[in-house]
Amino acid sequence: MYKAAVIGDSASVSGFAALGLSVFRETEPERIKKLLTRLAASEFAVIYITEPAAALVSDTINRYRSSRLPAIVLIPAIEGNTGEGMRALHDSVEKAVGSDILN
To answer: Of the given ranges (47-51, 70-74, 82-86), which has the lowest mean pLDDT?
Structure first.
């Protein structure tokens, strides 16, 4: 059975444990890179990562963009958001539908 995880600072990700997600409180770039690699090799189909954490490891995330699994989804954090999550959502919708229907 596939699992879902969330990665980011403690304040932003702690509540996800109540939803049954595996929570990883991590903010160090090298540790996040190793964690992503480990989770991708495991049974994790979806990995949510806060925008600030994703900004630290964009090269690693890009390696998985063309892979079927895991889906890596950027989510807002309590602070330090970059807007990258919303841009990625717009790009995905435009790619799937043929136009940006979210604007």
So the answer is: 82-86
Question: In the chain, what are the domains?
Answer: 3-97 (3.40.50.10580)
* Whether the predicted model's global pTM rises above the 0.90 cut: no
d(CA 61, CA 64): 6
% the chain with pLDDT above 90: 66
Measured CA angle at 34 (ends 33, 37), to 5 deg:
90
Q: Who contacts 54 (Cβ-Cβ below 8 Å, separation ≥6)?
A: 61, 72, 74, 84, 85
